[in-house]
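Below is one record:
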Amino acid sequence: CVVLGMGGDSHTASLFPNQLTTEHAFREDAPVLALTQPDDAPHQRIGLTLTGFKKAKLLILHIEGQEKRDVYEKAKSLDLPISKVLNHPNLNTQVYWSP
């Protein structure tokens, strides 16, 4: 089971918008994990990749608050990190939202 959160910028699993690492993380041949470096962070992070998401028997996105709900609604039709998870044909992501 993988439980994902989502940042207000649509990042998830330490995969951030507009980063080359994120693009590589969603390739079919990506390793399970990827090192990422957010622009505003002083250290690297470990991100899960498409390969890792596919290994999960249960994939859940858990979000809280109206702001994150708004990001989620917009992201469904855009090309953002969370969009790549939500719209991938081989991933069945369950979404749980709490106001």
